[in-house]
């Protein structure tokens, strides 16, 4: 099998705070292949943006990769200097659409001028070639080539977002990291953006790391998915396997918290409680306090990441009760409560 494009292995990222070390990402592992669309989902504060920033070398000054590796085409890049990352990796190999990117467009500069600035820093290409590349990408994201010299305010919100995607793509990177690229847009605009992302897959063979709190978007547009809760990857695998057969309580409850076009209309799940404060090492399941099925061992060590037990070898979950939790959940949410509900098991301690 060919080497993955990006391989994140056992990655822990921490921030120095006044109260000590905060762990934002704990022992995260996943890989992305050429042309693969990979979705990273989880609620706010789960560590998604931190992972993205660690990959691109854009952590805040108080952040650090404490352990683990990030390999790009087999080369470890987590310790590269900012200069090396800028010269060799950023924009040309991996580009990044940060959260709130719409405000990152400079209102005083034409989009083409912003592209020239990026192109001049990261490549030796002549200006005319940079402009040509931008025109080609404008076309792919559904903007008229003639509009590369417009100012951002001459575009609608959805068009601005597509201009940002064009800026992330025009140097033909292998991997685009898009952090909540459609959050500020209405549903129709979101839909248009995702149609254009599909074209990227077909026409450019680019890989995508799509970060969003909205897992329904990932189920519609990605090949694989990882679901994060409070620094830990709870579950990951192909989108089809995780959609059909979620094993981690956070994975299935989170899935049920969003509408799903593949399924009949239903009430949306509400996940009670809040993620814990993660000071120091996360040597327990970070979902245990919110999980109705938590067993004592969930708090006695970080749960090992193990096969979810289906046909997808990449489908893994970090739950010690992975074999029974979903059945417990279903019996709990079924209309007839026969006394074996998850809540009653959690309350009586039976079944542990
Ligand atoms: N510079 C920082 N200093 C201290 N803590 C930080 C810093 N940046 C992020 N954090 C903390 O790290 C944790 C993970 O944050 P992160 O932004 O990576 O999560 P996220 O899943 O991307 O959330 P969101 O979708 O809201 O951006 C949170 O507890 C957050 O408060």
Summarize the structure.
One of its GO terms (molecular function) is ATP binding. With 352 residues, the chain is α/β, with parallel strands linked by helices.
Task: Tell me what you see in this structure.
The protein has 352 residues and is an alpha/beta fold. The protein folds into two domains: 1-93 and 174-279, P-loop containing nucleotide triphosphate hydrolases (Rossmann fold); 105-172, no CATH class. It has eleven helices and twelve strands. The protein has helices at residues 48-56, 82-89, 111-122, 127-140, 157-169, 187-204, 215-221, 239-244, 249-255, 325-333, 342-348, and strands at 6-17, 20-32, 37-41, 63-72, 75-76, 94-97, 175-179, 207-212, 224-229, 232-238, 306-307, 316-317. The strands form two sheets. Strands 6-7-8-3-9-10-12-11 form an eight-stranded mixed β-sheet, sandwiched between helices. The chain has a four-stranded antiparallel β-sheet with strand order 2-1-4-5. Helix 3 (111-122) packs across helix 4. The protein is globular. The two termini are 40 Å apart. Residues 336-352 have low confidence and may be disordered. Adenosine-5'-triphosphate is lined by residues 15, 17, 22, 24, 42, 44-50, 60, 62-63, 99, 213. Residues 329-352 are annotated as: Disordered. It is found in: Cell membrane. Residues 6-255 form the ABC transporter domain.
Keywords:
12 strands; binds adenosine-5'-triphosphate; 11 helices; about 350 residues; four-stranded antiparallel β-sheet; about 30% helix; eight-stranded mixed β-sheet
Enter the CATH topology name of the largest domain.
Rossmann fold
What Rg do the Cα atoms give? 21 Å
Can you give the mean pLDDT?
A: 87
Which CATH architecture of the largest domain would you pick? Answer: 3-Layer(aba) Sandwich
Count of folded domains: 2
The CA-CA distance between the termini, in Å, is 40 Å
Low-confidence stretches: 336-352
Portion in beta strands:
15-25%
Please report the first level of CATH classification, the CATH class of the largest domain: Alpha Beta
* Secondary structure: number of strands: 12
Q: What small molecules accompany the polymer chains? A: adenosine-5'-triphosphate
Assign an overall shape: globular
Structural class: alpha/beta
Which percent bin holds the helix content?
A: 25-40%
The string of secondary-structure elements, in order, is EEEHEEHEHHHEHEHEEHHEEHH
**What is the makeup of the main sheet?**
8 strands, mixed
CATH superfamily of the largest domain: P-loop containing nucleotide triphosphate hydrolases
Region (Disordered): 329-352
Membrane topology: Peripheral membrane protein
Subcellular location: Cell membrane
Domain ABC transporter: 6-255
